[in-house]
Amino acid sequence: MRLAALHLRAADPAALAGFYRDTLGMTASKRGEAWHVGYGGPDADLILLAGGGGYQHDRGQRYWKIGITLPDVDLAVQALRAQGVAVSDPRQFGDIGYMCHLTDPEGFVIELLQQDFEGNRPPGAADPSAPFAAATLAHITLRSGDIARDEAICRGLGMTLLSVQEVADHGFDLFFFGFSAQTPPDPDLWSVANREWLWKRPYTLIEFQHVEGAEFTPVPALAGIGVEGLTATGLDLRGTPLLPS
Which of 71, 98, 152, 168 is 20 to 30 A from 30, alpha carbon to alpha carbon? Predict the structure, then answer.
């Protein structure tokens, strides 16, 4: 099994697909009434559906963002700004990673996360003419107030907890689950030593931003998460349908 797709509703799926193709280096194709965009590897695609509009990013919502990992965030930022895309200045966020953020034309948040920490990036890590050539749609981030329940659902699907990361200054912890038999370098899942390894995985993970006891509302623009190998719809992650894909 694998995480195969994130289904989002958009006001203009064709235009949004064009943004991901022309700005973030994904390929795009129309299949029926939906647009599929992605990097073509074992990671998840975005499936863009009609019926959205009016989405606003909000801390009270269950859905949070996607994370794209890539070899050189600085090159990606230069390319985005050359196209007139607003993007935050890259920075090393604690002992989590070197990252920046932007929003797509419909307001969905995108995190760009470098596969190596600031100062650890090897020379020539990416081609300046194609900064997204080795990118991965690495994370689908949901917010959780009950990580034990969410972990039980993930493990019930056959997913493995690969990393736990404390972000005490912001009042939450991060939990990363994936369909993987791989073992992190350090058996202590809280270890910082696992993080650059995690950012180099070629497949998509579910990331939970856990705030103990918090309540989060479903997001109508999130139509579901596609799981390859799932045989029936009906399971859900707190209002987020898990769909056969």
Answer: 71
Residues 6+ apart with CB under 8 A from 222: 6, 7, 8, 9, 62, 63, 240
The pTM score is 0.96
Q: 3-state DSSP call for residue 100?
A: strand
Q: What is the pLDDT along the chain (245 residues), one digit of tens a residue?
A: 999 999 999 999 999 999 999 999 999 999 999 999 999 999 999 999 999 988 999 999 999 999 999 999 999 999 999 999 999 999 999 999 999 999 999 999 999 999 999 999 999 999 999 999 999 999 999 999 999 999 999 998 899 999 999 999 999 999 999 999 999 999 999 999 999 999 999 999 999 999 999 999 989 999 999 999 988 766 566 678 888 88
Considering the domain 2-244 in this protein, what is its CATH number? 3.10.180.10
Question: Residue 190 contacts by C-beta under 8 Å, 6 or more apart in sequence?
Answer: 164, 165, 166
Pairing of strands 34-38, 27-31: antiparallel
Residue 11 CB burial class (10 angstroms; 0-12, 13-18, ≥19) = middle
E-strand spans in 51-149?
A: 63-70, 91-93, 97-103, 109-114, 136-144
Judge whether 49 and 86 are in contact, CB under 8 Å.
Answer: no
Contacts of 89-97 spanning 24+ positions with Cβ under 8 A: 90/114, 90/118, 91/118, 92/117, 92/118, 94/167, 94/169, 95/165, 95/192, 95/195, 96/165, 96/167, 96/174, 96/195, 97/195, 97/196, 97/199
H or E element at residue 152:
helix 147-157
